[in-house]
């Protein structure tokens, strides 16, 4: 059964809330610096495409040429699948899920330009990015709760690892933001997903966020890593 306009709009908004990267998308694969910048911007604004499609269809009911829509959808699918494969080979499984589910969402919504809705197989596949978006948003509460519970009132901070970027807003705690798309080349170059640093009476304790188990795990001997997790942020009292 084709999805109604209200349901399409709701899904498109959910995709934006779950996938849109603030302030910028995580590092993608290590290509040429110029290409990396392009990929970052693509990953940043790609989640807006479903909502843009809904807005376009609300302004005009005239269907777009089927061949043109098919071409756009095909190119999007090919590019998305290629990036998904590269991420599963060189990156993390979460980066693979991120890229693949976003690709499904965009391709499904592009069909709206011609048919006016999402139907058939795509009406079932669209469940995948919806579930991923809901998971991404719900992770905010899980991370915030665990960080406060683990700190136990001690000063703490949350940060990304390699970028040494302190978390400054709740959007950065979403599941699709608080993770490392890349794997380290070896154990000492490991990319941690997201860091929690707690300043205790015995000294700072560093934790790494585990998206798979939805918990923070202690990092033993953090100073041994080439990019010191302790340098990511400075714990502060609430």
TrEMBL record:
Keywords (A to Z) from UniProt: Membrane, Transmembrane, Transmembrane helix
Bilayer-crossing residues are 7-26, 38-56, 68-89, 95-113, 125-145
Q: What is this protein called?
A: Uncharacterized protein
